[in-house]
Automatic annotation (TrEMBL):
<dbReference type="InterPro" id="IPR036942">
    <property type="entry name" value="Beta-barrel_TonB_sf"/>
</dbReference>
<dbReference type="Pfam" id="PF07715">
    <property type="entry name" value="Plug"/>
</dbReference>
<keyword id="KW-0675">Receptor</keyword>
<feature type="signal peptide">
    <location>
        <begin position="1"/>
        <end position="25"/>
    </location>
</feature>
<protein>
    <submittedName>
        <fullName>Outer membrane cobalamin receptor</fullName>
    </submittedName>
</protein>
<keyword id="KW-1134">Transmembrane beta strand</keyword>
<keyword id="KW-0998">Cell outer membrane</keyword>
<keyword id="KW-0410">Iron transport</keyword>
<feature type="domain" description="TonB-dependent receptor plug">
    <location>
        <begin position="50"/>
        <end position="158"/>
    </location>
</feature>
<dbReference type="InterPro" id="IPR012910">
    <property type="entry name" value="Plug_dom"/>
</dbReference>
<keyword id="KW-0406">Ion transport</keyword>
<keyword id="KW-0813">Transport</keyword>
<keyword id="KW-0732">Signal</keyword>
<keyword id="KW-0472">Membrane</keyword>
<dbReference type="InterPro" id="IPR039426">
    <property type="entry name" value="TonB-dep_rcpt-like"/>
</dbReference>
<keyword id="KW-0812">Transmembrane</keyword>
<keyword id="KW-0408">Iron</keyword>
Length: 789
């Protein structure tokens, strides 16, 4: 891959964005609150109050991507965002990949209405995904701060930017909204929402809604249903001096998952790695008398099934009190409970399992122990109890806007790794929890608690009517404690593990500063700049990939306490926002934003595993260590050309260069990563959205280009670029007199229009040679009828 200078690439991108193809980004007058930033169904290049690069996507545009889409999937059209997943909605969490400015989803900050959603680890321990926290149709907007999240963002993982999702408020009038989607692979999504309208009482106005959705679809690679159901309730009381908001969400989700394909690891390499479910007889015939899969396929053998089952309860109460025009105090409390299982039913004589099982059942017939089928069911059983509070005091004092805030969270998460029999006459199901009566062993049980405290203070000083300076800092303190009531028996984890560690690990970062400035050059043009330091607190769970509590010995944990630091970053960004009405023939307006950024990422953590090929299901021993620095330079350029009221063309062109600055040592071997690019992060991204509307008709085409990527830390493996095209068409039906139905709309969505095949998503886990991947989902079509009463 040939290198170009950052400067030449940056100039090329800026020129391309200004003169060519860009779609719906409209900048309005500065919003007084996040809610006020919504501008119909347009992407909003927000705006004059932020020193950061910040863009928003509104509700209508999210649903155009695909009705019911994960709000994080919808932002893949925004500059600097690389997003991939195996299903068209973006719901499948096992193989979601999100990168923004070189940082992955575990290094970003996620919130819903200000409530922290954790670091999005698939090994659930401190949160839940946005699509499990709110029904997609109830999302008002999503805000992306690509460089550095706001100081007050309730996240302890945001080395990079923040993704803030906001739920819609109840409507002022009583009504019912509905939507029904049908599509490829037996897909069905049914949405219903009932709004009370505003009702006077309790010293003000009251409104609320109840909403439910049911979704299911057959996975495209195997014959199993993915989906679940979800419910939302929201209540808003507006009084003379304050607003009280209550929100509750319940999500029950079941996702049978495909496995990733291992490359260069030995044996067959299929296009995708399917499952044998629900054909139990074929599964029985697939393994030999000892429960071993075919010998020519040691790493990409087929399991009977694997799945993720998650049940979440999330709620908050928020009260915003206004002490006159100058002081507002907002307090919010929240609670989140999660329980679930990750399951794999696979051959008992694969992936090193016989060695594990013989430790617990020495000298016994393992096939008989596990029910005579040659298969066993492995579970990772999750439990989360989080509770927290957020408080923010905003003071307007002359030319100063002062904000003081604090966030506290207590979390207790549990992880149990267990194995169950898969009886030959009673096979397990991916839609049910494992039967306790069939439990054969508990490999380990771990309980981790932490208390997290973050505070911040900042001052936004309007130095002149056109110049604003913003400065502040936050403190981030974490106090974690891990216990392992059930340890693995000696030898039950790979390598030289002696068991999981126990103990306390406290990390304190008292001063994480931020400073920025805005200059209104004209009423239509604005320069902005920002510098900020961030920290990613240690993951506190045995299930998390970069957790000190997941290493293989007490000695390793103690060394981490003494010698290892949490990851930190300095982010520098500057840019220009501009919007102008034009009278150049068909061209009537242009809106654009260009930003350049530099990131110094220090103390990078790496899990050095005894099983680098991502095929083992034993889990366990790893070494966690700081392996040096990453330096990132990049440019995002996004613009919209408007050709009257009926046509707009949007384009976002992004360049990112993220390079390792150091080698690291694995055992006694030096791994030559200095000067290598961060794998799975494309240097070039380009997004194009063409929108056409005329009366009741609308058509939208979305193009998404992701450039070549490396697949290993030493860059000896990689894949080429890919381009995907999605289409959406909608028609607003005329009102039917006498039926009371309004806003009837019929929409059609087609994903991967060209039916592109190939590798879609990388899974990086090795320094060289081996890597894993998921295949590109095929073309799919969906039709949706929506409306209201």
């Amino acid at each position: 891959m040939k290198r170009f200078s950052v400067l030449s690439r940056s100039m090329l991108m800026i020129g391309a964005a200004v003169v060519a193809v860009p779609a719906w980004a409209q900048q309005q007058s500065e919003p007084s609150s996040p809610e006020a930033a919504t501008n119909g169904d347009q992407i909003v290049v927000t705006a004059t109050r932020t020193t950061r690069s910040s863009v928003e996507l509104g509700a209508a545009e999210i649903q155009k991507v695909l009705p019911g889409a994960n709000p994080v999937k919808a932002i893949q059209t925004l500059p600097g965002v690389q997003f991939e997943t195996a299903d068209p909605w973006g719901n499948n969490e096992q193989n979601i990949a999100l990168f923004v400015h070189g940082f992955n989803q575990n290094q970003l900050g996620f919130t819903l209405d200000g409530v922290p959603l954790g670091d999005q680890s698939y090994g659930n321990y401190n949160g839940l995904s946005p699509q499990r926290a709110v029904i997609s149709e109830n999302v008002a907007r999503v805000r992306l701060t690509a460089g550095a999240a706001d100081l007050g963002t309730a996240s302890a993982s945001n080395l990079g930017g923040g993704i803030e999702t906001y739920s819609s408020d109840p409507t002022a009038t009583m009504g019912v909204r509905f939507a029904q989607t049908l599509g490829s692979y037996d897909a069905s999504r049914t949405f219903l929402r009932i709004d009370s309208g505003e009702v006077d009482g309790l010293g003000g106005t009251n409104s609320g809604y109840l909403s439910v959705v049911r979704q299911k679809a057959r996975a495209w690679e195997f014959n199993a249903k993915q989906g679940g159901w979800q419910g939302n309730a929201k209540f808003v009381h507006k009084g003379e001096n304050g607003t009280l908001t209550g929100y509750f969400n319940i999500s029950d989700k079941v996702e049978p998952n495909q496995d990733s394909v291992a490359h260069n690891a030995g044996g067959l390499e299929p296009y995708y790695r399917s499952l044998l479910y629900p054909n139990w007889q074929a599964a029985l015939a697939y393994v030999d008398a000892n429960g071993a899969p075919p010998s020519n396929n040691p790493n990409n053998y087929m399991n009977y099934f694997g799945d993720a089952q998650r049940t979440d309860y999330l709620g908050y109460i928020k009260y915003e009190h206004r002490f006159g025009d100058a002081v507002t105090w907002t307090n919010q409390v929240y609670y989140h409970h999660d329980e679930g299982q990750g399951q794999i039913t696979g051959p008992i004589a694969a992936a090193g399992l016989p060695g594990l099982f013989r430790i617990y059942y020495p000298g016994q017939n393992l096939k008989t122990v596990f029910g005579g089928s040659g298969y066993a069911l492995r579970t990772t059983e999750y439990g989360i109890d989080r509770k927290g509070a957020i408080s923010t005091l905003a003071i307007h004092a002359g030319d100063h806007e002062i904000e003081l805030g604090g966030w506290y969270e207590h979390n207790r998460n549990t992880i149990f790794r267990r194995w169950y029999a898969a009886p030959i006459d009673n096979p397990p199901s991916p839609y049910e929890w494992a039967d306790p009566a069939l439990r054969r062993l508990t490999q380990y049980a771990a309980i981790t608690k932490y208390d997290l405290i973050q505070t911040h203070i900042q001052d936004r000083w309007h130095v002149t009517p056109t110049v604003t300076v913003e400065a502040g800092f936050k403190s981030s303190l974490q106090f974690a404690d891990g216990r392992v009531p059930t340890q693995p028996l000696p030898g039950a984890l790979p390598g030289t593990s002696t068991g999981y560690p126990e103990g306390r690990l406290n990390t304190k970062k008292w001063f994480l500063p931020a400073i920025g400035a805005i200059w209104d050059i004209t009423t239509n043009d604005q320069l902005f700049g920002h510098i900020q330091k961030n920290v990613r607190q240690f993951q506190a769970s045995v299930a998390a990939g970069l957790s000190p509590f997941a290493v293989g010995s007490q000695q390793a944990f103690d060394q981490i306490k003494a010698n290892t630091s949490p990851e930190t970053s300095w982010t520098y960004e500057a840019g220009l926002r501009s919007h102008h009405a034009l009278d150049l023939g068909p061209l009537t307006a242009i809106e654009a934003q260009v930003s350049a950024y530099h990131v110094d990422f220090d103390n990078r953590l790496l899990q050095i595993s005894a099983t680098p090929v991502i095929a083992s299901v034993i889990g366990g021993v790893s070494i966690l260590q700081n392996v040096g620095r990453v330096r990132t330079n990049g440019v995002d350029a996004a613009a919209t050309l408007r050709f009257g009221p009926h046509l707009s063309v949007y384009n976002a062109l992004s360049y990112n260069s993220s390079e390792y600055r150091d080698n690291y040592v694995s055992g006694t071997t030096t791994i030559a990563t200095a000067g290598k690019y961060v794998p799975n992060t494309a240097r070039w991204l380009n997004k194009t959205v063409v929108s056409i509307n005329d009366g009741p008709f609308e058509i939208q085409a979305i193009g998404d280009y992701v450039g070549p990527r490396f697949a290993t830390y030493t860059n000896d493996q990689g894949i080429g670029g890919r381009y995907l095209l999605n289409l959406q068409a909608g028609y607003s039906l005329p009102q039917i007199d006498g039926f009371g139905v309004k806003d009837l709309k019929l929409s059609v969505n087609v994903t991967n229009v060209t039916n592109r095949k190939g590798i879609y998503e990388l899974v990086v886990g090795a320094a060289s040679k081996t890597w894993n991947s998921y295949a590109q989902p095929p073309r799919m079509g969906f039709i949706t009828l929506s409306g209201a009463f």
